Amino acid sequence: MLRISSAELRGMMFKALASALILVAPALASAQTASDATCARVANTLKLQDTTITSAAIVAAADGLPAYCRVQLTIKPSADSDIKSEVWMPMSGWNGKFQQVGNGAFAGSIQYAALKDALKRGYAAASTDTGHTGTGAAWAAGHPEKIIDWGYRSEHLTALHSKAAITNFYGVGPKLSYFTGCSGGGRMAFQEAQRYPADFDAILAGAPAYDRGNEAFGFMAKWKATHESPESVIPTSKYPAIHRAALEACDAIDGLKDGLIEDVLSCRFDPKVLACARGTNNDSCLTAPQVDAVRKLYAGAKHPKTGELIFPGFEPGSELQWTAVTGGAEPLDVGYDVFKYILLQDPNWDPKSFDLAKDYDRLHKLDNSTLSPANADLTPFVSRGGKLLIYQGWADPNVSPRSPLMYYDRVVKTIGKKAVDDSMRLFYAPGMGHCGGGEGPNVFDALTALEQWREQGKAPASILATHSTNGKVDRTRPLCPYPQIAQYRGSGSIDQAENFFCAEKSHNVSASK
Questions:
Q1: What span, in angstroms and rounded, lies between the C-alpha atoms of 38 and 19?
Q2: Taking the CA of residue 292 as centre, how many other CA atoms within 13 Å lie in the half-sphere pointing to its CB?
Q3: Is pTM beyond 0.85 here?
């Protein structure tokens, strides 16, 4: 029997490791720098199912972007599919990672600005138009395969094909894959985490419009509340007065009066305090029908028979952002297009005929996970080390802020608090609108926080956010992971983040009103 000494065994292992490094080194080096011929080779050699590579060309360095290989794909998984996707791969300085960016609303275009941002960070990046062009959802009526493409298939196929292109181009695949998106992109992020847990190692979901069916009911209910009758219409000139009253009621609940409602879940504001005196009606007060309408806006859409919350309403502090949702002659199309073109498939449906009491049960039966990825069992995603970071503005008028909190609570109940603590975070930005903007600090780098969590095991304890006026930063504040909120230390400028700390309130408040 052949006997090998421990010294000989160590020598053999060292030689094997050295050989492996010799083989891997060229691949790693090529991953940092690529040639023009390498880009052309992608078009000539990469074979993808149901996919045509329409172009693979070098784009010269310009406007702060490095030179990159731009690969354009047309993906046709069905006879009615026409998905356009692009993959951008830096010619040098690739960080070894892949980032796919999401789309807002109903998508319909490649997200070039987001691709540029990813490229500047060293990522190979991809985006898709999700299978159609233009805004709105008129493309959906009579096209079930296109609805599937938009719903989840285009995102998944773009991820698979992009990774294949990256591997072909660099000679090695990405070491880690990230997905980032806000609003409709947040819905796409949820689809990926729930349906295809192996596509991405970490996911950043802003203002996730994941509950699109019920969210559509929410949009319709908000518009209906302010158009029930001519008397219930609220002129936009009255919004500032409502906003001031909400701040007066709830700004100081967190212990600091700073023009922001930090502890929104503890806020109890009744617009009746603005009731007009008899015989008066001006921009500083609300008539009785208007008081009733504002109460409905905060309350959200409720089941006409059971009273159960269908979709949450606006939050106090969001009043200056209401115009797009409640101020139009028609409901916001991002809401009623869901009914008109996706659920009912009836381009002639009149949104003004909507009646929650009559229509809810009928329309709700048509909702499905293609539209609304609400599965709370994230076990397949988190069990492979996946990280999900969600952020949401408390003054968001489009995605009601309690919606992601309701999902978070369901995930805790489904997979347990420890699994959630290890893999999921929900950050709220007081005073921030939809995906940004608003009176509160609303510019922050959540992706770096997610990278550090996934790559270094450093869970984000806070995220620094800034607010600017006329291009000048005038306030910084830490965003805190739910259920914590930012609390003032008691001294120093209230406009400087270092004078705040994240801490949990002494009591928990349910997400459902």
A1: 26
A2: 11
A3: yes
- At which residue do the structure tokens 């001294």 appear? 491
Burial of 475 (0-12, 13-18, 19+ CB in 10 A): buried
Burial of residue 380, with CB atoms counted within 10 A of its CB: 0-12 exposed, 13-18 middle, 19 or more buried: middle
Angle value at C-alpha 138, between 134 and 142, nearest 5 degrees: 130
Structure confidence by residue, pLDDT tens digits, 405-461: 999 999 999 999 999 999 999 999 999 999 999 999 999 999 999 999 999 999 999
SS3 label, residue 334: helix
CA dist., res. 218 & res. 213, Å (int): 9
The domain locations on the chain are 33-174, 214-364
168 contact partners, CB below 8 Å, separation of at least 6? 41, 42, 45, 46
Helix and strand numbers, DSSP H then E, in the chain: 16, 16
Query: Mapping DSSP to helix (H, G, I), strand (E, B) and coil, where does residue 421 land?
Result: helix
Closest by alpha carbon to 260, among 489, 503, 435, 495? 495
Please name the residue that has the structure tokens 């003032």: 488
Tens of pLDDT, residue by residue over 299-311, are 999 998 899 999 9
Q: What kind and span of H or E run contains 393? A: strand 387-393
Q: Look at residue 301 and give its three-state secondary structure.
A: strand
Rg (CA), the chain: 25
Burial 82-100 (b: 16+ CB within 10 A, else e): ebbbbbbbbbeebbbbbbb
Q: Which residues are catalytic?
A: 183, 396, 434
Give the model confidence (pLDDT) of 228-255 as tens digits: 999 999 999 999 999 999 999 999 999 9
CB atoms within 10 A of CB 63: 6
CA distance 455 to 451: 6
